[in-house]
Amino acid sequence: LAPFYLVLTALKVCCLALRRWRGPNRRYLKPLTGSRGVSVIIPHHDDLEMLQECLASVSEASRQVSEPVEVLVVANGADAARYAELERQFPSVRWSFFPILLEFAGAIRCGLENARFDWVYLLNDDMVVDRLALGEVLKCRSSFTFAVASQILVYHSGQPREETGYTFYRVVNGIIELDHRIPSEPALSERILYAGGGSSLFHRVRLIEFMGTRDPYSPCYFEDAEWSVLAWKHGYEVIVCPESQVRHRHRVTHQQLFGSREINRIFERNACRFQLRNALHGG
């Protein structure tokens, strides 16, 4: 009976998710403080050349925004002395150095604690943002928005487009699988299942609330999916902004840290955890 039970459970979750997607329940919405501006939080480990390109793109994108922009780099598992040249090149960047590896959620949490603005843009250091990426994503803020994802393109032309920002779920043999789909042409803004933690705008206070203080998906993968699922359940919405574009080196950072075999193991393990934490308790 196990397969039958899993199918019923998955269908229950799908129905709940679709019901939530009809629109936000404004009784649960928390008001904004009204502060203008955005904090760009970049968790980082080791690859200085990749970080330099990322920061250069953020610097250019910041100049296209009419409100304050701050950039926070959380360099974890890093030797601060190696970053002297980057600190000189980008004097406005706020740096936090940690000799130990904080992992993904820990680095994000550190950035959130030090961010000055209501809205934070979480950006992986293996991303390069388009010059209009920040300005366009900021246009999508509203009182009932939890997160706005940028559209993800490949870093090198000709590579398969494994991530797009257009996230959805499907049920395969009773198991919920998360995936990205190729958007239509022209790409349109629409509701999505979750906003990726590597290139999306989040409401800071709501993100802190949904992250909590524990890291069940340590060291990485599926945390961001759970944040958005919780946001949907509380009446907020998650959308993608196609005009905000980033280019991604797929899994480069995690390859350096863990290697392909370990990455696959972590991904499959956390997929099971996501199923157990969100499907079996989907009410």
Helix proportion: 25-40%
Question: How many separate helices?
Answer: 9
From the N-terminal CA to the C-terminal CA, the straight-line distance is 22 Å
Given the helix and strand composition, which structural class is it?
alpha/beta
Helix and strand sequence: HEHEHEHEEHEEEEEHHEHH
Largest sheet: 9 strands, mixed
* Cα radius of gyration in angstroms: 18 Å
List the uncertain runs. 13-31
- Report the average pLDDT across residues: 86
Shape: globular
Could you explain how this protein is built, in words?
With 283 residues, this protein is α/β, with parallel strands linked by helices. It is built from 9 helices and 11 strands. The strands form 2 sheets. Strands 1, 2, 3, 4, 5, 6, 9, 10 and 11 form a 9-stranded mixed beta sheet that branches. It is globular, with a radius of gyration of 18 Å. About 7% of the residues have low confidence.
